[in-house]
């Protein structure tokens, strides 16, 4: 999804929730500023659906909750709210909120040309504030490439690059799958510059 800053006064989370309920599109709230989220490509949407479907089926009866791009994530100890493409929480504290997750163990962002730098940079730095986040998955929508940022037991973030023929391993939810499962049937073409 693509974020574009809107020219609004600074909003509190309460004002943001009330205002956003009346909007036709989704908006992220970062440091009191509202950013409109526009739609992605067909591949972007299909890839996001594949992840949420796969996670939901894998986690059935586990007590974990799979979120799609309609579920906000509150950045821990801030008033910032984002919309990842997919997320999973297994934290009991997230069962007490109806508008968002705060403690996902897994977040997925499907990349586009306009959001890739943000998803890899400042957005990831915000997500790192979450003490239970273990896996941050960045997924190309134009080629068979996935980057996994995994927090190891020592609390260090490691990056694992996956390509054709690889098996993705998400330790956060104990799930392994071939990368081709995400890309099956898609026409992959580089985005126009």
Automatic annotation (TrEMBL):
Q: Which GO terms describe its molecular function?
A: endonuclease activity
Q: Which residues form the Putative restriction endonuclease domain?
A: 13-173
What this protein is called in its record is Uma2 family endonuclease
| Keywords assigned by UniProt, alphabetized | Endonuclease, Hydrolase, Nuclease
Name the SUPFAM superfamilies on file: Restriction endonuclease-like
Instruction: Locate the transmembrane regions by residue number.
Output: none
InterPro entries referenced in this protein's UniProt entry, alphabetically: Nuclease_put_TT1808, Restrct_endonuc-II-like, Uma2
Could you tell me the superkingdom of the organism this chain comes from?
Bacteria
């Amino acid at each position: 999804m693509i974020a574009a800053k809107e020219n609004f006064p600074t909003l509190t989370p309460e004002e943001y929730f009330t205002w956003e309920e009346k909007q036709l599109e989704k908006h992220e709230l970062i440091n009191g500023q509202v950013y409109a989220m526009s739609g992605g490509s067909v591949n972007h949407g299909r890839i996001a659906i594949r992840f949420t479907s796969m996670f939901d089926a894998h986690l059935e009866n586990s007590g974990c909750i799979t979120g799609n791009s309609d579920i906000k994530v509150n950045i821990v100890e801030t008033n910032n709210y984002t919309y990842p493409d997919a997320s999973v929480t297994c934290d009991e504290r997230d069962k007490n909120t109806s508008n968002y997750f705060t403690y996902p163990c897994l977040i997925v962002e499907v990349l586009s040309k306009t959001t890739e730098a943000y998803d890899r940079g400042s957005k990831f730095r915000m997500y790192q504030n979450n003490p239970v986040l273990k896996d941050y998955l960045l997924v190309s929508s134009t080629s068979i490439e996935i980057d996994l940022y995994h927090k190891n037991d020592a609390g260090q973030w490691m990056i694992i690059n996956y390509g054709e023929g690889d098996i993705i391993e998400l330790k956060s939810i104990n799930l392994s799958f071939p990368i081709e499962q995400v890309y099956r049937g898609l026409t992959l073409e580089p985005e126009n510059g």
